[in-house]
Amino acid sequence: MQFFLSTDLVIGVNEALNLHEQIRLVGMRRPGVIYDANLSSSIYFQDVLKGLTGRCGECVLYCNDFSGEPTYAHLENVAEFFRRDMPDGIVAIGGGSTLDLGKGVALLLTNNVAALSLKGFPQEVNDPVPLVTVPSLLGSGAEISFNAVFIDEAEGRKLGINSRKNFPKKTIIDPQLSMTAPIESVIASAMDSLVHCVDSFGSQKHTPLSRIFSIEGFQRTFFALQQGQFDRAESRLDLAIGSICGTTALMNSGDGPTNGFAYYLGVRHKVPHGLAGAIFLKEVMRYNFMHGYDKYALLNPMRSSPSPRDATRELLEEMDELYRQLDIPNLVPYGYGKGNVAELAKNASNALKGSFSGNPVEFTEESARHVIYNLT
Predict the structure, then answer these.
(1) What residues are paired with 71 via a beta bridge?
(2) Domain locations in the chain?
(3) Would you say domain 8-178 falls under CATH 3.40.50.410?
(4) Which of 88, 221, 255, 355 counts the most CB atoms within 10 A of its CB?
(5) How do residues 319-361 score in pLDDT, each as one tens digit?
């Protein structure tokens, strides 16, 4: 069994106001700062940025207003921007896409190559400049992972740059930064956490240690979503811990069909990744349950039945209620109906064999048709 953690974490309310102190601990004196454009209207973020620029001397600032998940071409442009005024490290503040952009830029600043040449799992690359991540949404787990997702526009696929050298040196998690995010983005990100927890829990490559993180992450996130008290810092901290646990589990196990479906739907229809995963999650769980998989009982902290089968059924009923509460859609709004189930199942199966193979029960194109049919 192997298990790894790499990022130094600081979690707490108002911790982002001390960002200048944290980046000095990783050796930065002249940071390059990439931040989400939608944070610009946040008074709290303005205080964070003012404290950072006022105490770190000369900062190189880049406002990321790119719509959707970053492409390799966008990464090239941002890396070139920073090469003109070379910083000694990168601070990325924002959602998962901006954090991934920070990872890519940090790597390209020490590797003068085309971004596309690093796609997949690059070997023999130079160490990146130090990276500090500060998430403004809690769920993708991008703040602590080495994976960085980028879209190859020519192929229409999400591929990314996945080197363990991408790990941030430090992550600062401050729930205050997420308070102005649209509620639909908060929910989509939290659902992304649930996908990570469930996929890693059921993964063929799970370990006893990764499952500890899967279970803890699922229970914290599920409870926070059920309560719906997103205006409370305590609820946001639960989402933050759930995100960390889910991503840690996923890095140390593997994904499954839900994450694979999410990648496919997200690229084809520009659906936010967390929402795309949420659309499929419950039906993939139900498919596995119908085919004899009852270990989801361990994810259910409120199970009243000692029977794993009954406890899993209870959890799925709670999931049904949560989906109604959060108004999670099916596939119909994205142009899918009974008539094109087979086409979607075939395309997804061809593109996502790796994700399908991680499922705890056999998952084939026919399985995909079954799941998709129930979502149309």
Answers:
(1) 151
(2) 8-178, 183-373
(3) no
(4) 221
(5) 999 999 999 999 999 989 998 898 888 888 877 777 888 999 9
